[in-house]
Write a structure and sequence with these properties.
Length: 117
């Protein structure tokens, strides 16, 4: 589905729609950055890398949905840019448990070639 197209939780990847919002327990503080991503990964066409580098951040902890698509893509993008990555296994989810398990397994392959869990 394309960005802005109708989905079961409102328009896909669109700020203000129910499917876009964070759970209350993880809502950012007023001074914290929120990155609107226009695709599956969070680095392409956003200022995330600039925000991280300007803040001196070298390690990224990842959670969210979907483990096998958005989270995995972002983890690979971060690793390609030199960030150390940690995926929170029980802080991610996928529409299919098998896809979630496969995505976690890929992180463990080759001694954690692009991150750890």
């Amino acid at each position: 589905a394309g960005i802005g197209s109708p989905g079961p939780c409102g328009r896909v990847l669109t700020r203000g729609e129910p499917g876009w919002d964070l759970i209350p327990e993880l809502y950012p503080l007023p001074h914290e950055d929120v990155i609107d991503k226009p695709g599956k990964g969070t680095f392409v066409a956003t200022d995330l890398e600039l925000v991280l580098r300007n803040s001196g951040i070298t390690r990224v902890i990842l959670g969210g949905i979907t483990t096998d698509v958005c989270v995995h893509t972002t983890m690979r993008e971060a690793n390609d840019r030199g960030f150390e990555c940690l995926l929170i296994e029980d802080g991610t989810g996928a529409t299919d448990p098998g896809n979630h398990a496969a995505a976690i397994k890929m992180v463990h392959m080759q001694g954690g070639v692009f991150g750890a869990t």
